[in-house]
Design goal:
This protein starts with 5 loop residues before the first helix and ends with a helix. The protein contains 13 helices and 15 strands. The chain is an alpha+beta fold and 546 residues long. It has three domains: 233 residues, no CATH class; 98 residues, Orthogonal Bundle (Helix Hairpins); 164 residues, Heat Shock Protein 90 (2-Layer Sandwich).
């Protein structure tokens, strides 16, 4: 059922597409956030790493350097030591960061540990290694100590050298007046006691929550060293959320367009074909692709166009044939009228009236045949399907034909059993009547009728004669309207060429087939009609028409 419905495929495709875009968005957010988090760690580390590297490089001897590193480790409560460069495999981007006096941060998400490698200017054989396994208030309050330790070597020039190292920090590092910070008395008291304080600020802006570190400057109670504000990492900032949302909507729109594009293309083809039909071009056909609704629509359109084209051609042929067939009796009537006008003999005039009456009757018969054929040709007639006995219909036709005193022998083979079939009695009678009338017209002496239900579930009616038969190359033509053959079945034998055409249309609406071949018993023509015996014929015919 799924492959037969283009709309189900579209709905399912949209659901799958939404799931895919959601998964894609989630993975994309994780990738972007991983990169943002790495950049955030590096931005927090670069400045203080540079200051620590400067402190190590200032030490004159190896022992002093070792002592300095040990003190820094105790101050931060983090493992800090030197590692040989040959034992550290750096990537190209990491080596580039070392060359620019930036820190290399390797974060282990499983153990929640960051390993920091810092290059030393005066030591080409080692990296300074810091294992950051925790970040707390102790570590944050220790950061100003390293900056102040760097500035203490430049008395009186603290602000100038602070501006020099500030370029390595991604956040603000300044010396400010204590009065301009808006601190309360408790915070000022702690600064007076040489203690650093942390300031948390919640903001409705894009920066969100920030942390600032305020530390007293030695020998200068009116000024403090401020670090920050440093924004906390935001896993889903407005820009990222908006960007991912817009990208997801764009991908979803592309996917939906891709799902609807085949439907749009097929609809455009159907509209183009219908416009051509409107202009009178009935030759255009739609490609039938698959087995969904659009394929059914294309198939129905093709069958409709074929049917319309056939109706128009049949109408044109009918008009030509009717005009030709009507001329003969009309000409005879006109001739008879002229003869009557010139003749005074009563008996002669009476015979002319009889001839005119026969011609008028022939005209009525021709008109009835034309109306019946046109009704069957234009569309499905109203069929009153019922279970009927085929033998009863055949026997009725035998009685009616014998009543005409045709001087021909009408035989009926009633040996077949189970002759009950679903059919419209009136039209089945018309088929048998036309076939028998055609056989009587062309036979020599005998006509054989038979009917029944085969083992394959098909009902049949068969009419045979002992006439000259129909050549194999002409057998398909006998079912065309106003068709007459040039051999034994000549115009002299009578008829208008509509009887077998009417039969073929009735058989079509019965959902059956009709064939003509040579009779194996009588040697003449044999017409065999077959149709489903135990099915609802209306449904089957409509299915064939669709």
């Amino acid at each position: 059922m799924f492959k037969h419905s283009i709309f189900l495929r579209i709905y399912a495709g949209v659901v799958i597409l939404v799931a895919f875009v959601a998964l894609f968005g989630y993975v994309l957010v994780q990738i972007i956030n991983y990169q943002r988090a790495q950049e955030y760690r590096e931005s927090l580390t670069d400045g203080i790493s540079y200051v620590i590297a400067q402190g190590v490089d200032r030490q004159a001897t190896d022992q002093q350097r070792t002592d300095w590193i040990s003190d820094a480790s105790d101050l931060l409560e983090l493992p800090i030591y030197l590692v040989e460069r040959s034992k550290v495999d750096l990537s190209h981007s990491e080596q580039k960061r070392i060359d620019h006096q930036q820190a290399v941060v390797r974060y282990d998400a499983q153990n929640i540990v960051a390993n920091i490698y810092i290059g030393l200017k005066n030591d080409s054989k080692h990296y300074l290694f810091i294992n950051v396994n925790k970040i707390g208030e102790r570590q944050m309050k220790a950061l100003p100590i390293f900056i102040l330790d760097y500035l203490i070597y430049y008395p009186g020039q603290e602000k100038e050298y602070l501006a020099k190292i500030r370029q390595h920090f991604s956040y603000s590092v300044e010396i400010k007046s204590i009065l301009g910070l808006g601190l309360d008395s408790e915070q000022i008291g702690r600064l007076r006691q040489d203690q650093s304080i942390l300031l948390y600020r919640d903001s409705a802006t894009m920066r969100g929550t920030t942390i600032s570190i305020v530390s007293p400057v030695p020998n200068n109670p009116s000024e403090v060293l401020t670090i920050g504000p440093v924004p906390l990492f935001n896993w889903m900032p407005v820009q990222l959320a908006a960007g991912i949302t817009l990208l997801s909507l764009f991908l979803l729109s592309l996917g939906v367009y891709g799902l609807i594009l085949p439907l749009q293309r097929k609809t455009r083809q159907a509209i183009k074909a219908l416009n051509k039909i409107r202009t009178g071009d009935l030759s255009t056909r739609l490609p039938v692709e698959g087995s969904d609704e659009m394929a059914n629509l294309s198939s129905s359109y093709n069958e409709m166009a074929t049917h319309i084209q056939r109706l128009i051609e049949a109408q044109r042929e009918l008009m030509r044939a009717v005009s030709h067939e009507l001329r003969t009796p009309v000409a005879r009537v006109r001739f008879a009228m002229e003869m009557m006008a010139e003749e005074d003999d009563y008996e002669f005039r009476l015979s002319q009236v009889e001839m005119i009456d026969k011609d008028i009757e022939a005209l009525n018969t021709l008109i009835d045949e034309i109306m019946t054929y046109a009704k069957l040709e234009q569309g499905m007639p109203s069929l009153d399907i019922e279970a009927i006995d085929i033998h009863d219909v055949l026997e009725q036709v035998v009685v009616e034909t014998n009543a005409l005193k045709t001087q021909k022998q009408i035989l009926f083979d009633a040996s077949a059993e189970h002759a009950i079939a679903d059919a419209e009695r009136r039209y089945l009678h018309r088929v048998v009547q036309n076939l028998v009338g055609n056989a009587v017209r062309y036979c020599d002496e005998r006509v054989l009728m038979s009917g029944g239900v085969q083992e394959d579930g098909l009902a049949y009616v068969c009419v045979e004669d002992d006439g000259p038969g129909i050549p194999e190359e002409d057998r398909a033509r006998v079912f065309e309207a106003f068709a007459r053959l040039d051999d034994s079945r000549t115009r002299a034998s009578g008829g208008y060429g509509l009887g077998l055409s009417i039969v073929s249309r009735i058989v079509f609406w019965f959902g059956g087939t009709i064939e003509v071949d040579q009779s194996p018993t009588l040697g003449g023509a044999r017409f065999t009609m077959k149709w489903p015996a135990k099915k609802k014929l209306q449904r089957q015919v409509m299915k064939q028409a669709d």
